Automatic annotation (TrEMBL), chain A:
GO biological process entries: gene expression; nuclear-transcribed mRNA catabolic process; rRNA catabolic process
Domain Exoribonuclease phosphorolytic, first and last residues per copy: 23-153, 157-221
Main location: cytoplasm
GO cellular component, one term: cytoplasmic exosome (RNase complex)
Keyword Amino-acid biosynthesis: no
PANTHER family, A to Z: EXOSOME COMPLEX COMPONENT, EXOSOME COMPLEX COMPONENT RRP41
Keywords in alphabetical order: Cytoplasm, Exonuclease, Exosome, Hydrolase, Nuclease
Protein name: Exosome complex component Rrp41
Ranges of compositional bias, category Basic and acidic residues: 12-22
Organism, scientific name: Vulcanisaeta moutnovskia (strain 768-28)
Complex and partners: Component of the archaeal exosome complex. Forms a hexameric ring-like arrangement composed of 3 Rrp41-Rrp42 heterodimers. The hexameric ring associates with a trimer of Rrp4 and/or Csl4 subunits.
Subcellular location, record wording: Cytoplasm
TrEMBL record, chain B:
Gene: rrp42
Gene Ontology biological process: rRNA catabolic process
One GO cellular component term noted in the UniProt record for this chain: cytoplasmic exosome (RNase complex)
Lineage start: Archaea, Thermoproteota, Thermoprotei, Thermoproteales, Thermoproteaceae
Protein localization: Cytoplasm
Role of this protein: Non-catalytic component of the exosome, which is a complex involved in RNA degradation. Contributes to the structuring of the Rrp41 active site.
UniProt name for this protein: Exosome complex component Rrp42
Length: 246, 283
């Protein structure tokens, strides 16, 4: 509250890192980066770099947690101690990380066809390797790719994208500075092919119209990331000889 | 700490069918309309050992909030502001399926949503909590206890927290010329500076099939396909939390505008009760 940013967040429609309000940072994706995992992905939104690894479906270690009609998801979002620009982040889970693990789990649950694997667990581990804002949504994009890489049946791919408000302007893909000093922050997870939102949070102050504009901007960015996710998976799994050319 | 898929409460199939059929006709099993809150009652100052307290009933959901104020050192990035710390526990007394222990992810999530709704509303002036810039400021510890869980813990907890803050008074602090604290006089208190126009409230919607209803009971939460919370202050959105499920853009837009409308009604109820509140500790 009332904190002044060290540099102006937006001047002449340009953000502190030179981007336009609706401009996403470069997105980099790679799948199958952890040989031991069933599926994995490394995703970067600019300087934010996240690893996701998926294990399972496998037996539930704590029997009382298994469900007779579907698989359970076990999700951990975690920041490694040297991932932040401030001092060392304690590796013990903070309240923030516990909440984020939960909202990511409930973002993934509508996407994964859990009914296919009763009495098993599918484990999703998200490690923030380098943080520069928008870590939970980058983690969601990575988790979705890792689940697909693991061959787990899904209803759609899930795209994470953040929107926010700085100096009254709605922006996409917040960096650390914008997250810390902006007027509002709104992370979303979007099943783009189905037009469904499975994660939506907000803080700051927004008019109802601004919320609507922010969601529209998030869907625009999600379309691009969704396409990239498909390309990355196709590049790994579809051999050129298997593609049909008409 | 892993977040694990939770088992939902079991509702007999027959009752589920009745609940769904009624909702299609615009009525709920407790005879409410889809857009009706349960009866709200608020008692404040119920716990004399707290610096401010409140007991809220929303239907059968009962939540108690207490405020303790302490002098602390302001955070480096906000030297002229005090602090707000919100914690929540679902007491094992509140429901047969709650085990004693430190707050789990559900409790932490509720506390953090309530915290964000208050923090971003402008209701509480953090600068008014400053005593000596950079050295002393008031820390407000808001502890919320759920005593009976019948759904919609978030809206009840927000009301409990804000009404406990409205009931809170800060002791007088005597300083020496160098700004050292000589005495904290708890017999001489003045109320917190609060902007009631920016009173924050949360509005929880549950999605059941194609229907969206407010203030779900625990059974409705268990039956629901999704839960979505909007924090409103004045006419603006100050917090959002999708808790479970998946929502379309149209559903989100409806819930945001419906929350703005519900806010006006709920705020009227809260302020009229607070104009002349009961103060005895009675569940």
């Amino acid at each position: 509250m009332g904190k002044q940013p060290p540099v102006p967040l937006i001047v002449n429609d340009r953000r502190s890192d030179g981007r336009l309000p609706n401009e996403h940072r470069p997105v980099r994706m790679e799948v199958g980066v952890i040989s031991n995992a069933e599926g994995s992905a490394l995703v970067a939104y600019g300087n934010t770099v996240i690893l996701a690894a998926v294990y399972g479906p496998r037996e539930v270690p704590q029997k009382h947690l298994e469900l007779p009609d579907k698989a359970i998801l076990r999700v951990r979002y975690h920041m490694i101690p040297f991932s932040t620009s401030e001092g060392r982040k304690s590796p013990t889970p903070s309240r923030r990380e516990i909440e984020i693990s939960k909202v990511i789990r409930t973002a993934l649950e509508p996407v994964v066809i859990l009914e296919r694997f009763p009495r098993t667990t599918i484990d999703v581990y998200i490690e923030v390797l380098q943080a520069d804002g928008s870590t939970r949504v980058t983690g969601i994009t990575a988790a979705s790719l890792a689940l697909a890489d693991a061959g787990i049946p899904m209803r759609d791919l899930l795209v994470g994208v953040s929107v926010g408000k700085v100096s009254g302007t709605i922006i996409v893909d917040l960096n650390q500075l914008e997250d810390q000093y902006g007027e509002g922050d709104m992370p979303l997870a979007i099943m783009y092919g189905r037009g469904l939102i499975t994660l939506m949070q907000a803080d700051g102050e927004w008019t109802p119209t601004e919320v609507n504009q922010a969601v529209e901007l998030a869907f625009k960015a999600a379309e691009q990331i969704y396409r990239l996710q498909k390309d990355v998976l196709k590049n790994k799994y579809v051999e050129p000889s298997m593609t049909l050319t008409i | 700490m892993l977040s694990v898929t939770q088992e939902k409460g079991v509702i007999p199939k027959l009752k589920q069918d009745v609940m769904r059929k009624m909702i299609e006709q615009g009525v709920r099993i407790d005879n409410r309309g889809l857009n009706d809150y349960r009866e709200l009652s608020i008692r404040v100052g119920v716990v004399r050992t707290a610096d401010g307290s409140s007991l809220v009933s929303l239907g059968n959901t009962k939540v108690m909030a207490g405020v303790k104020v302490e002098v602390g050192k302001p955070f480096e990035d906000t030297p002229d502001e005090g602090a707000l710390i919100v914690n929540l526990e679902i007491a094992p007394a509140a429901s047969p399926d709650i085990e004693p222990g430190p707050p789990d992810e559900n409790a932490i999530e509720i506390a953090r949503v309530v915290d964000r709704a208050i923090r971003h509303s402008g209701f509480l002036n953090f600068k008014s909590l400053s005593i000596v810039t950079g050295r002393h400021a008031w820390f407000l510890w808001v502890d919320i206890y759920v005593l009976n869980h019948d759904g919609n813990l978030v809206d009840a907890s927000t009301i409990a927290a804000i009404t406990a803050l409205m009931n809170t008074a800060l002791p007088k602090v005597e300083l020496d010329p160098a700004g050292n604290i000589l005495r904290i006089d708890r017999s001489n208190k003045s109320p917190l500076a609060l902007n009631v126009d920016k009173l924050p409230l949360t509005i929880t919607h549950a999605k059941l099939g194609n229907f969206l209803l407010v203030d779900p009971t625990r059974e409705e939460e268990d039956l629901s396909d999704g839960i979505y919370i909007t924090g409103i202050a004045g006419g603006n959105v100050v917090a959002i939390q999708k808790v479970t499920g998946a929502f379309t853009k149209d559903e989100v837009n409806y819930m945001i505008s419906n929350s703005v409308n519900q806010y006006v009604k709920l705020k009227n109820v809260v302020t009229s009760i607070m104009a002349n509140p009961q103060t005895d500790l009675k569940l």
